[in-house]
User: Which sequence fits this backbone?
């Protein structure tokens, strides 16, 4: 199994386990600490969001090329997604006027936005992908249009975006990838 597939399976299991943490924190808030409804909701949001952030980072950090930009962006994304989710929560509060519902909407919206933003922030650039493949000793032929890796292909049509090339066009891209690696 490739590390990427392993991470994907772990991610699915992990995201399902978030509901377990949600349930356990609700039980702790209600049964053990005997908190008020709004306090229980706050406890649930705090515990599940911490669990989500830490677990997600543990699973994916090894797959991310950490640049100063990515480190900064991932911290900012936690807060930016909270701001967006709070705006949505504000609308829900106006309509429903129910604090617990509002807080759950904020929590769920934040989680979805943040998970999506990590996928965008952590995604490697074309140059990074080419450099990584070069490091593995692969002579990389990539689609000039979408940079799909064409290594091992028996046809010159890109299976990802459908662009058609001639052999000499693809051969010419090899010289270009060397230029791109110089820019990394
Ligand atoms: Zn393509």
Assistant:
């Amino acid at each position: 199994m490739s590390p990427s597939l392993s991470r994907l399976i772990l991610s699915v299991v992990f995201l399902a386990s978030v509901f377990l943490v949600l349930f356990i924190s609700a039980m702790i808030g209600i049964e053990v600490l005997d908190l008020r409804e709004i306090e229980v909701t706050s406890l649930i949001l705090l515990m599940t969001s911490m669990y989500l952030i830490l677990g997600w980072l543990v699973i994916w950090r090894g797959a991310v090329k950490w640049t100063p930009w990515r480190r900064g962006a991932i911290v900012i994304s936690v807060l930016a997604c909270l701001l967006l989710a709070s705006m949505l929560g504000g609308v829900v509060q106006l309509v429903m006027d129910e604090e617990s519902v509002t807080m759950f909407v904020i929590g769920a919206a934040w989680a979805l936005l943040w998970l999506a933003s990590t996928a965008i922030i952590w995604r490697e650039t074309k140059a990074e992908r080419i450099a990584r493949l070069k490091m593995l000793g692969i002579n990389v032929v990539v689609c000039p249009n979408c940079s799909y890796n064409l290594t091992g292909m028996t046809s010159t049509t890109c299976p990802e975006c459908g662009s058609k090339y001639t052999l000499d066009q693809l051969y010419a891209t090899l010289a270009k990838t060397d230029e791109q690696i110089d820019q990394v």
About this structure: The mean pLDDT is 88. Residues 3-123 form one domain. The chain has six helices and no strands.
